[in-house]
Amino acid sequence: MLKYDATGVAQRPMRSHSWKNQSLVGVGNRLLRHIDSDPAPAPHTPIYVNFADLKFATVNAIVIGVALALGTLFLAAMPHRAMRTAESDAMEFALLVLMILMTTPLSFGYFFSWLVLPFAVITQRVIDGKGSALLWWSLPALALLAPALLFPQGAQAYGNIFFASLLLFLGLAVELFRYKRKHQQVQPAADLTTKSLPIP
Fold first, then answer.
1. Dist CA 186 CA 189 (whole Å)
2. Average pLDDT over residues 105-131
3. Any residues with CB less than 8 A from the CB of 106 and at least 6 apart, and which?
């Protein structure tokens, strides 16, 4: 993992920037550089999915910027220790799992079995009637994941799993912000009620 250059990550140059890698590094390089999304040692017809042809250093700057933004959003969404509950912990852990999946240099399809946790958290909140707004994030995420059932290589070449994970991350972060703000509004009222109780 410590070796990273224009040809790939670590000892897997053929897979690092291929359609199989759904990490921020893999998707960023495929979409922003003119590189083969399905490299092979034998002669073959290269497949390109890039929307731009940026320099390797520029792509790295964008990747680092996005990773820092995700980390900052995660830290900002985390509630204070005194405000933590089982509900907030579930959302926080789901966010952490999503961030790990997106920012690790090599993140292949089978890694994303971890999406079970974020989807379970979202489903439970919707069932409890507390997270209906999450549907606006999770349904598009499911729509992004669906094409991989029929066109796995084509869909993943464009980073469908990465972008679905990003939508789930943003949705859960917004939901955790809402949960934290609601808890902050309830806490002063509870403290005021406690202070107003007569001393026996």
1. 5
2. 92
3. 1, 9, 10, 12, 15, 16, 21, 23, 25, 26
Mean pLDDT throughout 184-193? 58
Task: Please tell me whether the overall predicted TM-score, pTM, comes out greater than 0.70 for this model.
Answer: yes
Angle at 110 between CA 107 and CA 114, to 5 degrees: 85
Q: Which of 4, 26, 196 is nearest to 111 (CA)?
A: 26
Cα separation values, 128 from 87, 123, 139, 165, 179, Å:
11, 9, 18, 23, 14
Q: Is the dihedral of CA 1, 101, 158, 32 positive or negative?
A: negative
DSSP state of 31: H
Name the strand (E) or helix (H) holding 9: strand 8-9
Q: How far apart are CA 24 and CA 102, in angstroms?
A: 5
